[in-house]
Amino acid sequence: MQYRSDRNGDPISILGFGCMRFSKKGNNIDIDKAEKEIKIALDGGVNYFDTAYVYPGSEVAVGEIFERLGCREKIRIATKLPHYLVRSLDGAKKTFEEELKRLRTGYVDQYLMHMLDDIDAWEKLKKMGVDTWLEEEKKNGRIRNIGFSYHGNTDNFIKLLDAYNWDFCQIQYNYLDEHTQAGKRGLEYAYEKGIPVVIMEPLRGGRLVNLLPEKAKKLIAENERGYSPAEWGLRWLYNQPGVTCVLSGMNSEEMVRENVRIASESEAGQFTDEDFELIRQVKEAIGETMKVGCTGCSYCMPCPFGVDIPLTFHCYNAIYSENRAQARHEYLQATLFRKTPTDASACKKCGRCEQHCPQHIAIREELVNARKELETPYFKPLRFLVGKLHLWG
Length: 393
Ligand code: SF4
Ligand code: SF4
Description:
Elements: E1 3-5, E2 11-13, E3 15-18, E4 24-25, E5 28-29, H1 31-43, E6 48-50, H2 58-69, E7 76-81, H3 89-103, E8 108-113, H4 119-128, H5 130-139, E9 143-150, H6 154-162, E10 168-172, H7 183-193, E11 197-200, H8 207-210, H9 214-222, H10 229-238, E12 243-248, H11 253-265, H12 273-287, H13 309-321, H14 324-335, H15 363-374, H16 379-388
Parallel strand pairs: 3-6, 3-12, 6-7, 7-8, 8-9, 9-10, 10-11, 11-12
Antiparallel strand pairs: 1-2, 4-5
Helix pairs in contact: 1-2, 1-11, 2-3, 6-7, 9-12, 13-14, 13-15
Bound molecules: iron/sulfur cluster (2 copies).
């Protein structure tokens, strides 16, 4: 196993165990199976385990498994405060106590504000006194590192990084999201600031393995490295020094062994020009199956009316190249809880963005098409409700 460091210089394994997708037995998590998989990961040197309050049954399973294995002090548990469900400081404290109980532990190594997607949400938490409370818990040793997980755009990510002295953060990042969400620019900004970055969705929820177009599969199969599509996705991440730990939702012994092997062999800066070229060709092949040729470069941003253009096109493309329900969910997740609307409906057709698009996309026209596909009849009533109840962030 290779290790990178937290802000104190302590080691974090570059492979982390994502505990959201444990196998089920009937309606419940198969604890015995998950324990065996976790044991293999531990033996392979994995020391980072990620769960969340809202992952059904996951915190309880993690608590039981590590109690059985008796190795709590050798590993890091990351879990998350669902701040969007919390209305007061007391609510946050109560949730944290419940998490400690579920996890059968007296402390959390990595505590994240879950889906903290813009600065308004953080300001709201600060007004409630959450920042002061987190620091007190850190002094008491019940929280060891304070961070946030993120799905918004690059600019907001950078603002959030600058808004607090974070110990770490967690972003969705993979070669297809190189220029969306926090993106490479965000990752490198965090790296410059010395903030460790944990990666989620390294294979885009399996899309970079199971849903690759035939042309991309062929390019990978014919490459002399002999890597699988998953190995290419993981190695592309490990190649970047700003990536501290890559979470993988592992639910078979074979997958754990394979991921441990890849993490043991991978180092930053290993990619050759030929490797980058292969990834470029694979991305191009994926791009050919897309509806709008948006590269996510963000030259069209910022829109004076707040529209998140790259995000909208990214989700619109995902409807055709991936999965309709998943793409709509991603769009909803990224736009619904914004105090200032960023969805395609906010477009006032001023045309400013089109002057800057190197792909010469008819952005105004395509935003209308995207809106029709992404904003289901429930979107507007939901948006109204979120506004009425002030459920920002
Ligand atoms: S045309 Fe629409 S998306 Fe483009 S800058 Fe104007 S309001 Fe924003
Ligand atoms: S400038 Fe064009 S290609 Fe770049 S993000 Fe905007 S719409 Fe997409």
